[in-house]
Amino acid sequence: MTGVTRIRSSKDLARLRGTAQEARRRYRKRVTICNGTGCRACGGLDVTAAFRSELARKGLTDVVQVMPTGCQGYCQRGPIVVVDPPGVFYQRVTAEDVPTVVASTLEADEVVEKLLYTDPLTGEHVPLEKDIRFYAGQQRIVFALNGEIEPSSIDDYIGMGGYEALAKALEDMSPEQIIQEVTDAGLRGRGGAGFPTGVKWRFVREAATFPKYVICNGDEGDPGAFMDRSLLEATPHSVLEGMLIAGYAMGASEAYIYVRAEYPLAIEHVGKALADASTLGLLGEDILGTGLSFHVHIKEGAGAFVCGEETALITSIEGRRGTPRPRPPFPAQSGLFGKPTNINNVETFANVPPIILNGAAWYAGMGTEKSKGTKIFSLTGKVQNNGLVEVPMGTTLRQVIFEIGGGMHEGRDFKAAQMGGPSGGCVPAKHLDLPIDYESLQSIGAIMGSGGLVVMDDRTCMVDVARFFLAFTMSESCGKCVPCRIGTKQMHDTLDGFTRGEGSVDDLTQLEALAQNVKRGSLCGLGQTAPNPVLSTIMHFREEYEAHIVEKRCPAGVCKALLSFRIDSEKCVGCMACAKVCPVNAITGEKKQPHTIDPTLCIKCGQCFEKCKFDAVLRG
Amino acid sequence: MPMKDPLARRWRKGGPGELRRPDDGADLSLLEDALQGLPRNEMSVIPALQRAQEVYGYLPESVLAQIADELRVPWARVYGVATFYAQFHLKPRGRHIVLVCRGTACHVGGASEILGALEERLGIREGETTPDLMFTLETVACLGACALAPVIVVGGRYYGHLDEAKTLAVIDMYTDGNAAPEVQP
Ligand SMILES: Cc1cc2nc3c(=O)[nH]c(=O)nc-3n(C[C@H](O)[C@H](O)[C@H](O)COP(=O)(O)O)c2cc1C
Ligand code: FES
Predict the structure, then answer these.
(1) Tens of pLDDT along A347-389?
(2) What is the CATH number of domain A462-549?
(3) Separate counts of helices (H) and strands (E) for chain B
(4) Spelled out in words, what is the top-level CATH class assigned to the domain A20-130?
(5) What is the mean pLDDT of residues A92-102?
(6) pLDDT confidence band for B178 (50 / 70 / 90)
(7) Into which CATH architecture does domain A564-619 fall?
(8) Domain with CATH 3.40.30.10 in chain B
(9) Residue B21 needs a FRET pair 20 to 30 A away by CA distance; which of A41, A532, A599, B131 works?
């Protein structure tokens, strides 16, 4: 950090912003290299080091800025490198590629063809980041800075207009005005339930007990979701700024950020952000000379999905077993240490600074009637482009999957999208054109949830998917209430039976009844929503259940116990490829003659099926 | 450790702290540094366990008892917390921790096959440690690296886009060299 040692007013902040922008402008070019968890896994740190040493070797360190960023949301293509100007996008870059990039793109303004992204739909190279389908279809507001700043640099954040919203809130707005602004903007909680954020803040503001607490929920236990990880890794200050504004609006001066231990890099970056903000006086006492005091502590989760539930999370911060308790009283009345507590999701807080800066009307201009602004989805599964996608509410699934996502992987058929993880449900093809918002998803048995979006193709078995989620909720059930503890186990066992061809149509009826009872009788959201994956797969794919139960057949070819393999003698050319891969030598036959599979030896591994180039191996 | 708090002494006498402190060979003096700066109250139980596990690799029973004493929290509470959260381990663990992600994207991408291959190669089931204390095999609900699915993490390093063969190649690197390999498979 340079220049100002402590920011005492908005003037100081403006001065620091000027200095930071000045420092940025000194460079002619900038190389941003993603150093998020995903890109690190593929060698992002080595690429960064290679750029540093190559630029030093060529004496270019004063001309070219090396900027390691947080996760840019396109981890699948990592490590990602962008050269600005003009914004050339390179993917899957290795340290060996670095000298070529420096010599061509940085020194001679030429692109390196082999590192460019190829559009899966057109088969053509796309040199510029802004033209890549995955980014072009997005509207990045919360994610605006992800690829623009170094997460551990508070100067970078301030240079890009960071903490301006805080200054505006503290100097020009009263707490009531802030709450009104957030309410008018129509911001709803991004952690799952979609409760109006402004309304929740008002409850806490109106509570007469002190102290009050603010908690940021970064537990993100929903398998298949990673937007909160990305935000905490890439722009931790934006979450912090949202929390500060919330604290001021509600009259709270203590806060906690709860981050799951599985996200070490996020914890590191949040820790650094807290330290830097304290040094500059943006946290602590007398913030921006207004007399406001605000302290933030970081709490590491210890691996329990249920701790994402707000009352369980509070119990966990207090140092006990993270089990939920009945509500009411709601945390806004009696939360952490029995005091009024506001708890919001990471993404919810990150939405606050843009709302304060640009106003409620601007924000409410995006989205649908009841769901405003943008939402980040983590798009994964059998789709070409995997990654984090920020789109306005009301965008259709078709746009997300077939435009931004580039369509299905290997050109297979879309079967369903699972939304909202273990609390959610699946959306079948007939609803692809539904505008996504909180209400529309609920109406078809799915939920927005935290934004997990797993795309499934015709080779995914919906009974297996339901069983997978029930295995998850069963093991994560805290055990405190009976419907959830025993009900999830019973539902899981029934589903497990179906995948092995056991069970009857009666069992299916019973499963549905049990699911309704668990929904009604459970103590917290975990149990209340655990039946959703079962109910929604039955609602949309009942025939697939019946195929398992009645015909003892898995149409998707996933449930091993129900599979059998044989070779179509018409199609088999006798290339012997299948016989070579068979691990148990169950396939026999002469060269150039049709082969056969011995069903008594076959272990149903499916390798012959994958291997055969002539579609001669039949699975059913 | 001088005990001034009368309550604390009672828990200690009442049993658990004193009686249930087996001599499991853990060097309790290491704990003092680890707990430095933590307030002595219930809120510190989870951070204390996290720090202790960093030091010992797992949580020996004597360490749990000592933490209960130090933080003036009933031993049963500490034990309850240690057994509630997936992060805490009451048994020794291997030198290399192999973590298989079972998140949705990884599941759809074949995580079960990968886990099966690992179980077969290492000769242990999920949650177990090889007798030579080289490998511990664990699963995690989701690592948030879904775009790399299926993913495993060995000793803190992420390996993505795996299949059975690639997974076994990763394990081979750790078996042969014993050190974290520098190159990606
Ligand atoms: C089992 C369960 C797990 C949850 N996990 C999370 C989570 O990981 N992150 C989150 O923000 N909210 C989670 N929630 C929702 C929280 O209880 C709470 O509604 C939310 O943090 C409120 O913030 P918001 O209003 O900004 O969405 C979970 C709820 C349940 C029932
Ligand atoms: S980690 Fe690089 S894009 Fe996500």
Answers:
(1) 999 999 999 999 999 999 999 999 999 999 999 989 999 899 9
(2) 1.20.1440.230
(3) 9, 4
(4) alpha beta
(5) 96
(6) low
(7) 2-Layer Sandwich (3.30)
(8) 96-176
(9) B131
| B 104-163 near A (Cβ less than 8 A) | 104-105, 107-109, 140-149, 151, 156-160
Which residues make up the CATH 1.10.10 domain(s) of chain B?
Answer: 6-84
pTM recorded for the entire structure: 0.90
- Read off φ and ψ for residue A118, nearest 5 degrees: -105, 125
Q: Which residue of A has its CA nearest to B144?
A: A226
Pick from A318, A378, A382: CB nearest B108: A382
Q: How far is CA B184 from CA A42, A433, A436, A445, B150, in A?
A: 7, 41, 39, 42, 15
Distance from CA of A299 to the nearest CA of B (A): 8
Question: Taking the CB of residue A350, how many other CB atoms lie within 10 A of it?
Answer: 31
- Of 3.40.640.10, 1.10.150.50, 3.40.50.11540, 2.160.10.10, the CATH number of A154-364 is 3.40.50.11540
CATH T-level topology, domain B6-84: Arc Repressor Mutant, subunit A (1.10.10)
Residue with tokens 């699975």: A619
| Closest residue of chain B to A43, computed from CA coordinates | B184
CATH number of A374-457, picked from 3.10.20.600, 3.40.50.970, 3.40.50.300, 3.40.50.10090: 3.10.20.600
pLDDT category at B106 given cuts 50, 70, 90 is confident
Q: What is the pLDDT of residue B70?
A: 92
Going from the C-alpha of A385 to that of each of A335, A379, A389, A407, A430, the distances in angstroms are 41, 8, 10, 8, 22
Nearest to residue A104, comparing CAs of A114, A94, A119?
A114
B42-78 pLDDT, tens digit per residue, is 999 999 999 999 999 899 999 999 999 999 999 899 9
Tell me if A522 sits within 8 A of A528, measured CB to CB: yes
Mutate to test the pocket of ligand 2, among A32, A42, A47, A72 (most ligand atoms within 8 A of CB): A72
Residue written as tokens 């929604």? A536
Rounded to two decimals, the ipTM of the complex is: 0.83
Encoding tokens for residue B123?
């000769």
Q: What is the pLDDT of residue A255?
A: 98
Ligand 2, CB within 6 Å, residue ranges:
A 34, 36-39, 71-75, 78, 80
The beta strand positions in A122-228, using DSSP E, are 125-126, 213-218
Report the CATH fold assignment for B96-176. Glutaredoxin (3.40.30)
Cis peptide before A223 (omega within 30 of 0): no
Percent of chain A at pLDDT exceeding 70:
99
Phi, psi of A418 (to 5 degrees): -90, 125
Joined tokens for residue B136: 């511990």
